[in-house]
Amino acid sequence: MGIASNSITLPEDSASLRALVEQLQVELLRVQLELERYKKLYYGPRADRLHSDKDIAQMLLNFAEELSQKPINKEDLPPASEPVDELRRVKRRKGRRNMANFDNLPVTTHIYELNAEERLCPCCGETRKEIGADESWQVEYMPGHFERLHHVRKKYACASCETNGENPNIHAAQKPEAVIDKGLAGPGLLSYIVTSKFSDYLPLYRLEDIFARQGFEISRATQSVWCGDVADLVEPLYELMANRVRTSHVVATDDTIMPMQSKEKTANARMWVYVGDESQPYNVFDFTMDRGRDGPKRFLKDYNQILLADGYAGYNGVVVGNAITRAGCWAHMKRKIIDAEKSAPDIAQEAVERVRALYAVERQAKDASVERRLQLRREQSATLLAELHDRLLEWKQQLLPKHPMSEAINYALGQWQELNVFCADGAVPIDNNVSEREMKRVVLNRKNSLFVGNPRGGRTAAILSSMTSTCRRQNVDPQLYLTQLLVNLPSLPISQLPTWLPDQWKIRHAAQLDSLQKPVP
Fold first, then answer.
1. How are strands ordered across the β-sheet holding 283-288?
2. CATH assignment of 232-327+434-471, given 2.40.50, 3.90.550, 3.30.420, 1.10.1740?
3. How many angstroms separate the CA atoms of 355 and 145, rounded?
4. Is the pLDDT at 52 greater than 70, yes or no?
5. Mean pLDDT throughout 450-460?
6. What's the distance, Cα to Cα, between the start and end of the chain in Å?
7. 290 close to 390: Cβ distance less than 8 angstroms
């Protein structure tokens, strides 16, 4: 008869008992790892590192602390011209630090002179003459301010025609077309609001307080409407960026939750990003109501080249339907191994070391051409991949099917074909970190602004995030770019739209600056 303990009945034969013990041990490991994941999510670092690496760092820290507590024997110090106290003191470099753009700032010169009475010599009473000057520099910040622009359009009529009872032919002078029809906000104000929210991640209620301190309060509701108006205006440019991303050889993609306000609780809508390659340097975001495959299928349309993504099954239908080559992400594979480290630390250590060897090859090929990078991968990475694959199969045989490390290994083996694509194409990155980094802007906006109000708000966030993210990729000031764009876009012919893509604007803007800086003959 078995012995009952709570809801578990222990079998009498040893084989069944051993199997039950193994099952409970695996379940305990799963619960412990789940607890570790939650602890890392709330309290731990975001970096994916093995605990053994942290142990080594802690040993070095302990050694340094013990060394600092030991008394210093003056006889053991090397001879030096400076006192011992000077050796311990941190020497600070003189002059300006971290002032890379100091010479580019506009200059306002303040001259300080002695008045006539102060110039008199206290010895003989004669007026002292100027013999030189001491110069020093200071960086000052002038807070932003609002201005009212008063537009007066003069109207003209023909007095002679009016006298003769004919049409006086009244004509009014033209003013620049407004960004928002009959709107109060100018291009500079609109670009500042968009940049603050979608590039600096300031929620609109904070901007409302900032504007109030500067003397003019603009409600967050009004700012939200203005953001939607700007998104509507730049949408043709957004669509052009999306079309160009779909012509890339490699498109990297990722997604994250974008909460949307609803009646009872926020709905888990999604924000996707599609990162073009170097030939099409645009980051395009797309908002969907859920994580279904309809979102990627609609955006990618007839794209049929290489899609770099994680193991999400929602891409499968798009990949098969469009005959897309799917590339996997080694950062995801490494993360799964690290998450299961405590269940099998020896396996995790070896697996991560083998993945690090692949990244070492990538560092060698960082600045190489596509052809040279592919050559290095075939010469070095291919062998490392074959060895890692053999080890993964060996580890799988050693572990129980539901073991946490077995699940991580199954993920790697299930994605093995995708994970090997980078060894067949030198243009494919080894991981998907480029799109994961872009997801940080969505996460920061989500943290500060909590949610979008409706699908239109999600669409606005996608369009304006695309513009500001692409500006950052091109190292372009988004506020300057958007200001000039909003001034010119309302009256821009559709044929000239490509010239206002951020990368094309950057080239034109740099050429204009160079022409202004050239000396006049």
1. 283-288, 267-275, 250-260, 306-308, 325-327
2. 3.30.420
3. 53
4. no
5. 92
6. 107
7. no
Query: Which residues lie below 8 Å from residue 168, measured CB to CB, with a gap of 6+?
Result: 157, 158, 159, 161, 162
The separation between CA 373 and the C-alpha centre of its own chain, rounded to angstroms, equals 26
Question: What region, left, alpha or beta, does residue 174 occupy, with left being phi > 0 and alpha being psi -120 to 50 degrees?
Answer: beta
- pLDDT-derived band at 95, boundaries 50, 70, 90: low
Non-local CB neighbours of 285 within 8 Å, separated by 6+ positions = 271, 272, 273, 274, 438, 442, 461, 462, 463, 465, 466, 469
Long-range Cβ contacts of 55-58 (<8 Å, 24+ apart): none
> How many beta carbons lie within 10 A of that of residue 512, not counting itself?
10
Least confident of 215-229, 372-386, 507-521: 507-521
Q: What is the pTM of this model?
A: 0.80
Using CB atoms within 10 A of its CB, is residue 169 exposed (0-12), middle (13-18) or buried (19+)? Answer: exposed
In the block, tokens 């030198």 appear at 426
Query: Please, which residues have CB within 8 angstroms of residue 440's CB and are 6 or more apart in sequence?
Result: none
Q: 410: buried, middle or exposed (CB in 10 Å: 19+, 13-18, 0-12)?
A: middle
What is the share, in percent, of the chain residues with pLDDT greater than 70? Answer: 85
> Domain residues of the chain, as ranges?
187-228+474-517, 232-327+434-471, 330-431
Cα angle for residues 304, 305, 309 (degrees, 5° grid): 105
3-state secondary structure of 436: helix
pLDDT of residue 31: 79
Are the beta carbons of 412 and 418 closer than 8 angstroms? Answer: no
Residue 84 class from Cβ within 10 Å (0-12 exposed, 13-18 middle, 19+ buried)?
exposed
Contact 308, 329 (CB under 8 A): yes
**Whether 412 contacts 392, CB under 8 Å:** yes
In this predicted model, what pLDDT tens digit does every residue of 222-242 receive, in sequence order? Answer: 999 999 999 999 999 999 999
Residue type, 138: Q
- Strand, helix or coil for residue 289: coil
Maximum Cα–Cα distance across the chain: 122
Scanning 285-328, the segments in alpha helix (DSSP H) are: 294-300, 316-322
Continuous segment of H or E residues that includes residue 15: helix 14-43
User: How far is the CA of 384 from the CAs of 50, 357, 395, in angstroms?
Assistant: 20, 8, 16
Contact 355/373 with Cβ under 8 angstroms?
Answer: no
Q: How many Cα atoms are found within 13 Å in the side-chain-facing hemisphere of 125?
A: 0
